[in-house]
Amino acid sequence: MDECDPVELTARLIRCPSVTPADAGAMKILEDVLASAGFECFRADRNGVSNLFARWGPRGSAQSFGFNGHVDVVPPGDHSDWSVPPFDAVLAEDQIWGRGAADMKSGVAAFVAAAVDMVRNQPPEGSVVITITGDEEGDATDGTVAILDWMERQGERMSVCIVGEPTCLEIMGDTIKIGRRGSMTARFTATGVQGHSAYPDRARNPVTALSTLMHRLSSKQLDSGTKHFDPSTLAVTTIDTGNAATNVIPATCRGVLNIRFNDAQSSATLLDWLAEEVRAVEESTGVSIDVQTRVSGESFLTPPGEFSDLVSRSIEAETGTQPVLSTAGGTSDARFIRAHCPVLEFGLVGQTMHQINERVKISHIRQLKAVYSRILRDYFA
User: Catalytic: which of 117, 136, 137, 156?
Assistant: First the structure.
């Protein structure tokens, strides 16, 4: 039996310094491994971002199991702060160290290894689809979105999909993500009339206006949560004028806030609410306020059912842990896939992701491969 080693593959991927959106050879490694096992491999590159689509089995199969992951990583920071070089993939203390070890080259390696072993030793009646992007940690406009666009043009489909993000909080197997909150960022520019601080009646203070607006927004309880989601949250992240003078009321003031919202909200309803609040403050202060918003993704949910039950059983069988179904955390590329097919997220413990000395346990990588292997066997069975 010719088995693919997920730890060795993880190390090879970490040694590619693929700081988003750089490829640094990681896609070529995966393409070679998958092609040697009989996968048809295609590139869906767009605007300088490397993307890989690989399929074993017939196109358009009624049973097509999908996996999505990324090989781009966040910058490592100052290399001297690391105990080991961040792209050397050092194996020590039953751990593999390096940028991307947790998020998420190990997850990619574990699924690729599981899929390669399956198609070589127990070929399924159906298809296995693997989609890998280099633009998850960046703008996410030319990564998984580009792959899905390419798939639509080519008539490629996934029946279900797992995203291999590091979902576990404390122990291996403790969490499956069945959805994610939506995310919206709003940037405000308040424009008033500059004046002397000794004569505030001759000015229109944008700082006061924007502070009032931010207080109104942050004081609002958006909702009390839903069946599968915690309450939506709003956080003011900055209010700034750049004003160094103590005796000048500035002409402009800027602020930023971020909203993480559940399925009781939508970006459209939140935009309407923001516009109403802005109008109210403009009318009461005489200061004009411009708003620019960016929606990173809407909230979504894959309802618990047959797919989540299958994944839960596989995790418990291989780890001894019964996973919790969660929607907590930030955004992921699952927000794009949810419009294509049912999608869940499961991967390693993510305690060190994006940190100095990022690392994961070698034993966990092997466990993750075993979980993915069981999921594939049970799905096609």
Answer: 136
pLDDT at 375 over 60: yes
Chain segment 344-374, per-residue pLDDT in tens: 999 999 999 999 999 999 999 999 999 999 9
Nearest CA to 233 among 335, 329, 333? 329
Query: What does each C-alpha distance from 185 to 75, 259, 271, 362 come to in angstroms?
Result: 23, 6, 11, 37
Give the containing element (helix H, strand E) for 51.
strand 51-56
Q: Is 136 a catalytic residue?
A: yes
- Pull the structure tokens for residue 310: 């299958």
Note the pLDDT of residue 299: 95
Q: Cα–Cα distance between 182 and 298 in angstroms, integer?
A: 4
Q: Which of 23, 31, 72, 165 is catalytic?
A: 72
- Tell me if residue 14 falls in helix, strand or coil: helix
In Å, how far are 24, 222, 279, 297, 367 from 233, measured between CA atoms?
A: 38, 7, 22, 15, 35
Give pTM, 2 decimals: 0.91
Q: What's the pLDDT score for residue 329?
A: 87
Is there a catalytic annotation at residue 93?
no
